[in-house]
Design brief:
The protein has 354 residues and is an alpha+beta fold. It has 10 helices and 15 strands. Helix content is 33%, strand content 22%. The strands form 2 sheets. Strands 1-4-5-6-7-8-9-10 form an 8-stranded mixed sheet, sandwiched between helices. Strands 11-2-3-12-13-14-15 form a 7-stranded antiparallel sheet, covered by helices on one side. It is globular, with a radius of gyration of 19 Å.
Length: 354
Amino acid sequence: MTTPLAPVLQLHGAPRELGRQQGAAVRSQVHANVAVLLSDFLTGTKSAQLTKITAWQKRLREFCFDHWPWLQPEIQGIAEGAGIDPELAELLSFRAWQYEVYHAGACSSFALPGANGHTLTGGTLDDPRFLYTIAHVSPTSGLRYLSFPIAGTVWANRGMNEAGLALGISSLICPGVKFDLDQLVPVDLVFRDMLQFCSTVAEIETRCRSYKFFCNLIAVDATGAVFASSNYCGDYTKHTSPNDTFVLTNHPAGAADTALRTRGYTGPDPSGFSLERLDQINTWMAAHHCHASVDDAITFLGATPTPGRVNNQHTSFASVAMPQVHPHTFWIAQQPVTTTAFHAIDVRTGKLIN
């Protein structure tokens, strides 16, 4: 039995129209997300922190609309399409519910030389499935791309664009780390900028130098070049590998671990199985180095979901790409992820490839 592909939102046009189309198409899901993610603000449960939350929103409105002015009409469009207050739409896209604890779900990402030396990349997005949708975005400015935003936001995360740039992300969860919330930018808005306006891994690295966010990421472009980094609020570690194999789960590695230990990092959270997933991917990459195919990656990611595995009960989506050979094809699967759940999508159209 094959897991069906969820409907792909087809969003096209100017920013305000992109927002209106999304808000109208997933109106009930947006209302549900407001209830789940922002209920504390609506009910007054966090009234004691209201001043801080208001300052958080004001700072991000000024920063984001200055750096990415097209986000303001798009967020306004979401509010109009979904029939919610524009302030709520802003709070959704600005991650207001995480202003105290700045991270998201557990995810895994990898890249390695595959068949004929062509770079193969893939991974999972692990977070509650009901929050998310699949969106193909054709903006009037920038590149067409496909990603998995939380419904009602202007986000992007794991995804691929028409330039053949594939982006894999994993939350960087650092127990004990002290960081200045007033300096952070929502990671999902940085990823949106990356997918809409970047074509090469060099441009991805420029974004990592420019914005302060917490995340592990692996990017692969159409030449097969790879950029892997751990990003921690204005600083980042660029990872290297003698075998050109890269894997990041949810903890800092190498120099990033050393740097974050000085800021209070106490080690990986054992409940997230980050070390275990890292070992699983490394073992698989060692066995498939220089001969892995898309089908091999699908078989690996589609293994029976099990707690502690790369594909687990929290995996909402999995993705695979080989940009040098298939610069416009993105293989994606939604929960429950199995080997038969993957579908090939053309990132130029958002349509299935037969």
